[in-house]
Amino acid sequence: MTGYYRVMLGKGSAYVDECVEGGFIGADYDIREDLSGKLTADWRAFNKAYIPIYMTNVPGKSKVAAGLACGSLWTIAIGVNEGDVVLSPTGHGMYHVGRVDGPYFYDPAGPLPHRRPVTWRSELIARPDMSEDLKRSSGSAGTVVNISAFSAEIEGLLEPSAPPQIVAADPTIEDVATFALEKHLEDFLVANWAATDLGKTHQIYEVDGEKVGRQYPTDTGPIDILAQSHDGTELLVVELKRGRASDAVVGQVQRYMGYVAQDLAEPGQNVRGVIIALEDDVRVRRALAVAPNIDFYRYEVSFRLKKVTHQA
Fold first, then answer.
1. Where along the chain do its domains lie?
2. Which architecture characterizes domain 176-298 according to CATH?
3. C-alpha separations of 106 from 5, 54, 57, 83, 113 in Å
4. Consecutive sets of 10 residues in the chain, 312 residues long: mean pLDDT of each?
5. Taking the complete model, does pTM exceed 0.85, yes or no?
6. Which of 257-260's residues contact partners 24+ apart within 8 Å by CB, and which partners?
7. Fewer CB within a 10 Å sphere, N or C end of the chain?
8. pLDDT attached to residue 303
9. Closest to 227 in 3D by CA, of 192, 273, 263
10. How is the chain classified by DSSP, letter by letter?
C-alpha cells in the first residue's frame, strides 16, 4: 500500500527549490556520517544508537528533542518506502508532490545530506484546496508527518477529473451530531491548553518554538499529547478518547508511559498519564484503581444559541 508523507525540506522550507531541482528529499540533524549499512529496520534501535550522537553534536537538546530528530531522520532514510508519495510545502501556500524512487544515499557536499531520490510531479497542490483535516495534518510540527489517511483526497487533488471519494458513515457512531462536535477535540484542547487545569501545571512539549508534543511518535503508536511540567520535573502522557473510554486505554497509556520513562525522560524526571474522555465505566475505574499515576478527566460537549437583539 502506498504511504503518503508531509516532508519539510529545511526550516521554513529553505531547501525546497534545491530539492525539487535536484530530485531528492533529505534531512540533516547534524549527523555527519554515511548511514548506509547502519539503518536497521527497527527505528528504536537506530534511535538508541544515534540519540547520544545527536545530543553530543547539538549540546543542550533534551532526549525528547533528540528522539524526535533521530526518528525523523530514520523515517526519511528508510521508513518511507520506494513508491511512497511525499508532499513538501513551498512556504507560500503550495505543496510540491513527488514519488520516492530509490534507496538512501549520502551527499555531504550539499544541504540535507541524508537523501532519497524523488521524481517530482509538475502539478502542485494548493493549501486552500485541502480539507480542514488535511490542512491540520499537513501543517503539524515536525519534519515528517504521515498523512496516509488522506490518500484518496490527495489523489483527487492531483486528478481533479477523478470521481469524488465517498466515505461510508462509521456504524459505531451512535450520535452523529455529538461526533461532529467531538471531531476536533484534540485541536480544541491544544488551542485552549493554557485555560485548562492541565495547562496550569504543564505545557505541551516544544522544541525551537514548535509544539512537537502533539502526536509524538513511539514504538507502540503516537502519543496524542506529550507535555512537560513548568518546572521540568515531570513528563505527562495525554490520551484523548472520543466518547466512552474502555479499560484497554489504561494499558495503552501505560505502554506510552513506559516508552517515555525508558527512552525520553531525563534522570530524576517523573512520568504521569492522563486519559480524557466523554465517559468512563466501572471497568475503567477498576483499572485506574491500581494505576495511581494515571488521572482521568471528562470533557463536555455543549452547543447553545444566544439571541442578539438589534435596536431599531
1. 4-158, 176-298
2. 3-Layer(aba) Sandwich (3.40)
3. 21, 17, 18, 20, 5
4. 94 94 96 94 91 94 93 95 96 96 95 97 94 87 89 90 49 45 75 92 91 88 94 95 83 95 93 91 91 91 75 66
5. no
6. 257/293, 257/294, 259/218, 259/219, 259/220, 260/218, 260/223, 260/226, 260/235
7. C
8. 65
9. 273
10. ---EEEE--SGGGTTHHHHHHHTEEEE-TT--S--TTT--S-HHHHHHHHHHHHHHHSTT--HHHHHHHHHHHHIIIIISPTT-EEEEE-SSSEEEEEEE-S--EE-TTSSS-EEEEEEEEEEEEEGGGS-HHHHHHHT-SSSEEE-GGGHHHHHHHH-TTSPPPPPPP-TT-S-HHHHHHHTTHHHHHHHTGGGSHHHHHEEE--BTTB-TTEEE--BTB-EEEEEEETTSSEEEEEEEEEEEPPTHHHHHHHHHHHHIIIIIPPTT-EEEEEEEEEE--HHHHHHHHT-TTEEEEE--------------
Q: Write out the three cell numbers for 198.
A: 492541565
